[in-house]
Amino acid sequence: MAEQLHKLKRRMKSVSSTQKITNAMKFVSAARLNQATVRYNFVREQLSEVRYLFGATLSGLDEHLPKRLFGTQEGPTLYLVFSATKGFCGSFNTMMDREIEKAAEDPNGALFITVGEKGRDHCDYLKYHRIKDAGVATMEALIYREAFKLAELIVDMYRDRGIGRAILVYPKYINSLYCEPGRIQLIPLEKDKLLREGGGRFPEPEVETLDMYSFTRDLLLQYEALIITEKQAEALVCEHSARRTAMNNATDNAEEVMGKLSQRYNRARQTEITNEIIEIIAGADAQRKTRPGESAF
Q: Helical H runs in the chain?
């Protein structure tokens, strides 16, 4: 009985320590979620206006742009995947791993650029074709400058016919408790989408004086970088939201386990005390007897 009490006490101490850790991580994740949400709202508001401008300009130049930018071409699909760098965020990493596996089933073949160590490790573990040294270590490090470099790499690969199209795979924010996988095609451009973002066709500019290749390439790179930056901000919100929910659930589970362990410990302790009292009473009763069957009184 004493050994059982000792084991229960050690387990209660371990669960209590875990509860303190998960509770602290919950508050840290909540603070980071608040920061990420503020940034996401700001980025979405600001970039929507800029994307409107780029979309309108590109839609107005569609007759002067290379037809390949709006069509399809042969070649593998390049997937730019956003994933977490750390764990302890519930099903978030599992969800993105499944999206990577679905992307790998692309009938045209699949290449991967990963942002985040979890996606990188999953691609390497399954031996998928990942473009090394092209991704960014963490989503936090994916600032606009890095997003522009990624856009430049993707556009050049498409221009050189190294890929048939490029798709961004990211966690889509639904609410603070739920996110789902999202996909957006980076290249080739979708004319209908550009027209929607641009509010319709703009008057055609005087393009005779422009170096159309340099102009459209720079315009396209800026547009793609804006999309990547916006979705990066959304992905961070999803990651921190998932981690906060996971840590909150872990804290609640630890509290529930502590309650059950406390009941078991108290019952075992009460049983031990009851047995000790019974032994004391039995010993005292034996001392009062002088002979078997004869009372001392």
A: 2-60, 92-104, 117-125, 144-159, 191-198, 212-287
DSSP, collapsed to helix, strand or coil, labels residue 175 as strand
CA distance 291 to 75: 102
Q: Is residue 127 part of a domain?
A: yes
CATH number at residue 151: 3.40.1380.10
Q: pLDDT tens string for the chain (297 positions)?
A: 667 777 878 888 888 888 888 888 888 888 888 888 888 888 888 777 777 777 667 666 656 666 667 777 889 999 999 999 888 887 899 999 999 999 999 999 999 999 999 999 999 999 999 998 777 778 888 888 889 999 999 988 988 888 999 999 999 988 878 899 999 999 888 777 766 665 554 444 444 444 555 667 777 888 888 889 889 999 999 999 998 888 888 888 888 888 888 888 888 888 878 887 887 887 777 777 655 555 544
The per-residue DSSP string of 228-267 comes to HHHHHHHHHHHHHHHHHHHHHHHHHHHHHHHHHHHHHHHH
Between CA 246 and CA 119 the distance in angstroms is 19
- From CA 83, how far away is CA 92, in angstroms rounded? 8
Query: By the 8 A CB rule, do 4 and 264 touch?
Result: no
Question: HSE of 178 in the Cβ direction (CA atoms, 13 Å)?
Answer: 2
Residue 10 lies in a domain: no
186 part of a folded domain = yes
Question: Beta strand pairing status for 289-291 and 294-295?
Answer: antiparallel
How many CA atoms are closer than 13 Å to the CA of 213, on its beta-carbon side? 2
Full residue range of the structural domain in which residue 158 is found: 20-200+207-244
Overall number of domains in the chain: 1
Q: Is residue 256 part of a domain?
A: no
